[in-house]
Amino acid sequence: MAEMIVALDVQSRLEAVDRVNAIGDAVGFYKIGLELFTAEGPDVVWAVKDLGKKVFLDLKLHDIPRTVERAVRSAGRLGVDLLTIHSVGGNAMIRAAADAAAEFGESAPKVLAVTVLTSLDEMDLRDVGILGRTPADQVRAAAFLSVASGADGLVCSPREVGMLSKSLRKGTLFVTPGVRPAGAALGDQKRVATPADAVRDGATHLVVGRPILAAPDPAAAAQAILAEISAN
Ligand code: C5P
Predict the structure, then answer these.
(1) Are 80 and 55 in contact (CB under 8 A)?
(2) Is the minimum distance from the CB of 84 to ligand 1 under 6 angstroms?
(3) What is the pTM of this model?
(4) Is 76 in contact with 108 (CB distance < 8 Å)?
(5) Percent of the residues in the chain that have a pLDDT greater than 90, as a whole number
């Protein structure tokens, strides 16, 4: 069954711990992104791990292979369970990340590749020199490269997950943000899917932020989404 990850899009360790406690036992997996990690560093990872939760460290690493390899090793030492790299780093960088993660054996973090940022359209791709390809073409190419180079899975939008889950090998992880229960506020998300639709399309993990964090009762909001996931 698909697992839900709550995006801890807050600014401080205290707020993060407060949110995790408010959500309680229903959720066992939290995403720490650039804002929170840059503010609090490894302390916030340890704080969430100390509460018995799994951590998805979403720093979207992109650098020369040696640097990414060493950063992944550092993340492995922190005990994170999932981390992200950018597929545009290329075959050698993705391979270096996968190999560094594998050094942790049973507790190896899973490496997810980001294909094309959902904020980019065809004009943006052209501006950075990717010519004659739509974002969908580029997503497909980057996804195949990433998995062939050793990534465990992909971050993919609700619009992409169906196509990718059908064409990539079994066991690949598909981690999907942009999830909104029917009737929930979209915020700045434009291409959304309900939890049920995302799971039906092949998502193995759903990343949900504001529909839970901004709810008057975050634990109840989390339970409602989990019920929708398990009904599938
Ligand atoms: O609040 P919301 O549910 O929109 O949060 C979604 C989370 O997933 C945020 O942390 C956001 O940065 C992340 N994300 C996304 N779309 C992507 C990649 C990551 O919404 N394409």
Answers:
(1) yes
(2) no
(3) 0.96
(4) yes
(5) 91
